[in-house]
Structures are given as C-alpha cells and as structure tokens.
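Researcher: Batch entry, complex prediction.
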Amino acid sequence: MSDRARTSPYLVLGVEFGSSVKQATRAFAKRQRELAALDLPIGAEDLTWALSQFKRPDLRSDLSFLRAPVGSSGDVEVPEGSLFRPGPIRLPRTTEPMDDNRRTELECLRLREVIAAFFDSAQLTHTALYEPSSPEGE
Amino acid sequence: MDVAGNPIQRVRNDFCTECGSSVGPPIGPPCPVCGSLREPLCSDYGKLVGTEVFFRRRGVHRRGLVIAMADQVATVLDDGGGQHDVPEGRLTLGVGAPDGDRAFGLFTRGLRDTAAALLTTPGRRRSFAQAAVLAGAHEAVRFAGLADLETGWLEMWSHWHSGDLDGALASALALPPDRYPDRVDVLLDTCERWRHDQRRCSAVLSAVERLHEEPVMLLLRFLAGRDRDPRAVVGAFVSRCSAPRTSPFWDDGSNATAVSAAAAVENAEDWEWLRPELGESAALNTLRLLRGGEGQPITSVDGVDVDVLDEAIDRGWLAPSNAPPPQSESSSSTYAWARMDPTALSDAALRTLGQTDELVRREIQRGEQSDQGSTRMLGLLKQLEDGDPRVAGELIPLLDADVRPVALAVARSLSSGSVDRSAIVDRSTWDVMGGLLRALDPVIVDDPLTRSAAAHAHLEAAKDALFTWRWSEALAEARACLQFADDEPISDEAQSICGAAAWMQGDDSTAARWFGAAAAGQATDSLLVNHALVTIDRDPDVAFSSLCRLLVQTDDQLLRGRAACIAARVALGTGCDPELLDDTVVLALRATTVADVPLAEHIASLSLLVEIDPKWVADASNMQDSPHAASLEHRLAVARTGGIAPVIDLLVESATDDTSNELRDECRRASEWLIAQMVDDDFDPCNLFLPLLAMRLTNSGIPLLPRHDVLLTMLATRAFAVAYIGDEEDAVPPELLWLDGLDRADRLAVLASFEDVNSVTEALAQTREAVVMAFCLSWMRHTDELVRQSEQMEEIYRDLRSRLSTESDLDELHRRQRTSGDALKESVTSVLGDISEVKHRCSRVDGIGRADDSEMALREVLALLDRRLHE
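Model: Structure tokens for the complex:
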C-alpha cells in the first residue's frame, strides 16, 4: 500500500470517520472478504494497521489521517416511525374486544370487591360497635 | 324458611311504622326520631298470630287460624268461619313452630271477610299483617285493613320474604319517595340478585331515578354502568342512607355492617381513618379503567384483567402519559407497556412476552445482525428495501397507517422506474430510491425536495465509491451531487470527496483546490483537518490558515493542542519570528498546557512554548493548575527556560536508583549540550560554570552514556586543573576525586565506542598530567606554608621559653607547644598522604617527580617537629 493510502485508516477499512471499534472490526472482516473481489492494493497487514488505529482512544483527534466523510452533510435526519426506520413495534392485542355484558359483569364484580374492601378496611362489625349500653343493642 | 330460602327472622314490635326507627318499649306517639303521630306497633305482639292451631270446643276437635292475641287469649277463626276465644294454654299448635311457618293457606275467601271484621284494633291489624308478611301471604296483608301506604310497605316485605323480587320491587317503587327509607334494602338486594341482567338493572335504574334518592341512585347507576368514582358512591351511600339503621325484619346483623359503618362514618370528621390501600386495589384500578381512567390516576395495573387493559389502551384511557411507570416484576405492567410504548421496556422484559418484532427492530437499529425473517413485517420490509416491489401487497396491511401510502409510492416507483414524489417525502426511502434519483436530470428537476433527495443519492454513491477505492467514480458521483446540491453542507461534503479522490490519485494541487473550495464558507473540523493535511507540504501558509480556523472553532481540546503544535512548527519552519507568532496559536498552546490532555501532548505544547513564550512558561502561576505540573517532564521543560543550570539541578535532584527513561533522555541532551559548549572554540576555559555543571552531572549517579561520561569528566577535570595552574580567581584546589573521575574515564574509554580510542586515551593522559601538575603546585604551596608555620612556631615558643620562669608556666608552654605541633604534624602527614597516593596512582605520569621536593621538605618539617616535641 502506498504511503498516501496510509493517510487514512478510514479509507483502508472503508468505514466512516467517527466509527466505533465495533464498526471498524466488522468492516475489517468485510474488507478481508472483499480484498480479492475489489482488487484493492492493500494487504492483510494494512488492514491490521488500520484496525489498530481504531483501538486508539485519541484517533478522533489525530490530524495525520484524511477523514471521510467530513460531517458537513449533517446526515439526513430520518426520524423513527419512517417507513424504513420503523418506530417501536407495539405488542398486538391478545384478547377479544370487550362487549357490554362482559363490561357490566366486570364492573359489578369489581365494585363488589371495592365495597367489601371498604367495609373490611373500616374494620367494622356488628359486635365491635354494638355495646351493651347502646340503645340499639340486642 | 321462606319460599326464597331465607331464614324467617323474628319480627320486632318496637319500631315506628313511619320511619322504621326503633323506639324501644312503645311509649306511644310521637316518634322520637321522625315525630310521627302514628300509633306504634302493639307491644303485646302475639307470637301465635297466623299459626294453625287445634282446640276443643264443646267436645269437638276443631282446626283454626289464630288471627289475634290479647291477654293470653287467642281469637281463633275456624275453617267454617266461626270465631272462638280460646285460652292459649288450651291450644295445640299445628304444623310448624311458633317462630316458623305461618299457615295462611287456610285463609279462604269467605274467612277473609270474617277475619277482617274480627281485627278491630290497629294493634291486632298490624300484628296480623306482619305475620302475613313473614309467611309471604301478600293477599292477607292487604286484608288486614291497614292504611294503603302501610299495606304497600308491608306487601313489599312480604314479596321479598317469599322471594318474589319483581313484586317486591313493584311495591318498593310504588311507595312515596319521602317515606319508608328501608325500601333501599329491597332495591339494593334486587339489583344484587339481578347483577347479570342488564335489562332489569336498567329498568330499576330508570324507576329509581324518579325517586330522587341520591345514595341509592348513585349506587344503582354504578351497578348499571354509569361513570362515578366508586369510593365516593360507597361513601355517600354509607353516610347518608339512614334506612339501614334499623329494619323491622333484620335483626340477625346481616345488614348490621352497613348500619355500623353508617353510624361510625357519620361521627367521623373526615375519611382519614379509612385505609389508603383502598385506593391501590386492583379492583378499584380496574373500575377506574372501565370508567375511562377518570378520577384519581391509575396507581398500578397489577392484577387488572388483561382484556380491561387491552380495552383501556385501545380506547386511549390508559396511555404512557397517565400509566404508572413500568415495573419489571409485574407481568401486567410489562404487558401494558409493551402495548403502549415498548421503548420503556428492556430487551429482557420484551423477551418474557415473546415480543420478537420489537427485539429484531432494535437489533437492526443498533446495526447488529438480526434475523429479520423471524418477523413477517420486518422481513417483507427488508425485501422492499432491497428493491423488490412485489412484496408491497403483503407488506402494506402489516404497516402502520401513516406509512402505508409511502410504501405504496415506493413500490410504484420501483415498478415504474420513475420517482414518485410522495415516496421521497419520507427520508428513509432515499437510499432505496437512490438508483432512480441518480437517473434524474439536474436541469429539469426544480422541486427542492427532489433535488435534495437526488443530491443525497449521488453523495451516497460517491461515498460508496470512495470507500471501495474507485476514485474516478467517486469524483464523478460527487460532481453530479454538486449539480443538485442547493445548500452548503452537501456541497462541502461533495467537494471534500472530490478532494479525497484527487488526493488518493496523487493529484495534490487538484485536491487542494477542492478542499479549499469546500472550506471557503462554513467548514467542519474534519474539513479543515483535510485541507491542512493536503496543503501542509506544498502550501504551508494555507495549511496554517486552516489550522488557525480549527483552533478557534473546535471543542476538542486534544485536537486543538495538536493543531496548535503543527501550526507553530509550520510557522517556525517558514522562518517566522517566535515572538511574532499568531496569538491564536500561542493561546491554544497555553490552553493545552493547562488542559487535561495526555502527557505527551502537554510536553509537546510546552516544549514549543519554552521556545516561543519562555516568560509565560517561567511564571509558575500560569500552569499551577495543570494536571501534569508535578511531573518530571513538565518541570524539566520549565527549567529549560532558566538555562542549563536549573535543568541539571533538577536532574541531580531527581536521580534515584530507578531512574526513568525521561530522566536519562534529558541527561543525554544536557550532556551533549555541555560537551558541545566546552569543545567550542569560543569556550572560555577560565569560566568554570559549565565544568562545574558537568562534574555535578557525572557525579549525580544518573547512568550516563559511556561516551558522555568520559568526555564530560575529561573536559571538566582539565578545566579545573588549568584554572588552578593558571591561578584563576575561581580555581579550586585539586582533589583526589579528579583522579577518581579520570580512572573511571580510562575504564569507560574502551567501552565508549569512540572512533579513535587512542586519541581519547592520549587526551585523558594529558589531562592526568595537568592534574599531576596541579597537585605538585598545590603541594609546593602547602609545603611552603607548612615550613613557614613550623619555623614561626619554633620562634614563638623559643621566645616564650626565655620569658617564663616558673615550672608551671613552662609545663603549660610545653603542653601548648605539643598541641600545636601535633596539629601541624597532622597537616603535614595529610599532605604527605596525598603525595604518596598520587605518586602511586600517577607513577608513570610525566612531572610526578616534581612531588619529590615537596615530599622531602615536608618530611624534614615532620622530623623537626618530632625532635622539638620530644625535647
């Protein structure tokens, strides 16, 4: 590989400036497979060199490598919910639509539970409140 | 038991028939509760009323029905219509106990008229009517002869006791709204039993609404399915419904809970004593959801029925804005959030639900390998994205409604081969439509959106070509992008790709022009870096300018520091006066030295500042906050602003057994500098400053390169010897250390890889001769001085001896003479020792023989001293 090509690990691996180590590693593997097909004037040791650059924590601050892209285009903003960038996929409904009878049944059942809980929470019983001196007592 | 299966309760007879309140033992009207003037029920209630009995009258066994009791005498109506008054003791009971069934079946139409005539008092009529109620004999109630309202009230209970809910309800609803409040019990019980019958409940509701009794209405409305906060309903019912306080037919406590609750609540000032968890119950949250989520917010979805959750979510009653936060331990919560907003859930939570689609979508978003075929929708979407429009028919129904038109437009475009504008409104389609967009003619297309999309397509193609090293194609696509690009960022990117392609093809000047054009207006950090990189060799001024722009705009301190270093070196390399260097660069270098950057960057900036701005570096306060202020490298760099002496001081001070590489490197640099200075033609041999530094360095313990050690030692020692021989002002007397250094240098000379070892050896020998000469001169001076001291001492003591007469004085004199003599002897011995040492170590050095005269003179002094001391 020429010295000129050595000015950019991004071009060697075919990966954008700012890519992560993970992305670079994937690009490394892909490039290895492509070497023969694309007939690139780079070898395995060049790829290894390029990948080693991505493992440097200060690569983004290195001025000795040509960068591509330069970030001017601001990358097209594709919001979630677009056709090819679907938003969160919600779980579909798993029950049948509720009819009025079911609704009434549930309401009555739950109301009964609420009322029972109400009285239970009040901890009131006939014997608890009725005292011998009470005029209403038996 | 009555026909409905309910136990027959003992009828109470001490209540007000108007309001139902218990009045204790009857004391007559008015009622202490409602003020009614109605006659209370007769206290002397006959428990046998309505009972079938047998009795004997005039020797005949007869059967009859007790229709009244008074003073333990029963009025019995026989089945023939005859009336008899029989003492209670003479009655035999028929089927059923006194508190059990009432045999009103014997009551025939004919007997009804007779019985009615016999019930002559209100007490008897009520007593009879109540008995009929308990038996469920509705008609009998009617024929007790009571007032219509009271009859109706009693009929209501009669129907209820017999299980005839329709009849009970009809009677209850027929009563006036402001009377007989215990009919609420009947109404409630009716709805309770009809809870599955929507039609009947609605009918009751409609009828009850006319009664305008709020608690009942509220509760029934709730049961019938209207909006109301259940807690308020129940509370209102309990607090305001006075009917359940007492009821003439309930004394077993079955309604006592409601009674007690009503009593207690009416006495409570507020509701605080009610446990708050009433509000947390799954039942209450379910009711709130069924009511559209109104009222208090839903506190939890735990335990809520799944179909209720589904209904509430689909109707918008439960949404992320009002739903309780997701709880990983609650399957209901996880389910609800998976339906509303799965982004609130972790991958692990989604796996518990088997939510594969969302998991795959996330993997695609993260750029991970994913099995898109595992989900139908995503798999088809991928096929469309790969350019196959045939899947649209199957895909579109699976998509959200808002993206379906886009999918259709994309499929249409791919099928027809022309760009449908409604497809590119969604920017996620631009890559898919790339081929079609790149085929557009820039001259014809004037729609801004289409032009943007086309520019993007060409740009992406240019990038792809660049990264696959197809420089010409990258150039062509980037140029095509420029024909569509209407805004600067896209143009800059395209021009940058043109520049990169030209650069990689070796066309530096073209590359510089492209980058220059791109950087002309706004420019990103990367663009400026590229521009500087390609121009730094052929056009340093342009590179310098781009670097200065980078220094001003970048937020990356490390990048700024590096750019500043390069800019400074570029400027200095082109002959710029350091003092005239652009302030932007100087300020950036300064900022780097106090920033948190790696040590190497810090030293790089600092080293340049030592050269460019030494005054600023020398001021310790400027970099006191630097994270590297305490490092040796930083201190050495700062020391350099003060010249070589502070550097050597620092080196000597920092020398340890485990000397660092930085220290050794600095020593090497200092050594080279010192040597260069001391061999320079302009070096003043009388100035011992540098030789002193050199000697300090060689004696510091820092392992120097052998070559440096040899040369420094030789040059420094020679300078010292020459200065002493020349009697210079700052000259120091020779020391054995000089010989130690020369001996070491002799040993190292062989190892130092000098090109001409012999010359070095000869130079060392010459130095040794100079040292010997210095020693001899020093001994001569010492010898003269010691001889003089000896003679002087002799004369003094001789004079003193002549003056002293007493023995004690003489003894004292001798003692002092001995002390002085010993001291002088010691000095002489020391010098003789040095002479002996040097003669031994330098026996072959020319000039060592000059030491003999001194040696001999000193030995004579020594002998003389010995003689005098022994006399």
